[in-house]
Amino acid sequence: MISLYAGSFDPITRGHEWIIDNAPGELTIAVADNPAKRSTFTAAVRADLVRETTRGRRRIQVIGLVYLAEFAAEIGADYIIRGVRSVADYEYERAYADVNRTINPHPIHMLMMPPPELASVSSSVVKSLVGPAGWEAVVAKYVSPVVLEALRAL
Questions:
Q1: Number of domains the chain contains
Q2: 11, 35, 63, 115: least surrounded by Cβ within 10 Å?
């Protein structure tokens, strides 16, 4: 069984990690550039942060993103994994899955919901916490030590 988890991971959070740890089968992580978002880190840095954060956890391949539905077919993905934190996320992901199915109907789109303590945490929320005195202690709850160090370097 092969799963494909795509996202911008700008930066990778504990919520992303939960999905990575709980996604079924062999996992490929595709790091994307989302044109609707202004990235804090380059795609190469984000991919490195994902690799470092997930090192030793399970067999994971991290790649830069290609056209997702076509790439899923190339690697024989059984599942396209997406994280859902809210009703708004669900609506977005449902539309995204519908379009992907017109390109490649094979993979099942699996929506995964992190536990409540991680459900409100997004990369955008994490980045908004950086700066005020004591921010490191707050942000450390939501990201790995390697990501915290990358945020300190900004």
A1: 1
A2: 35
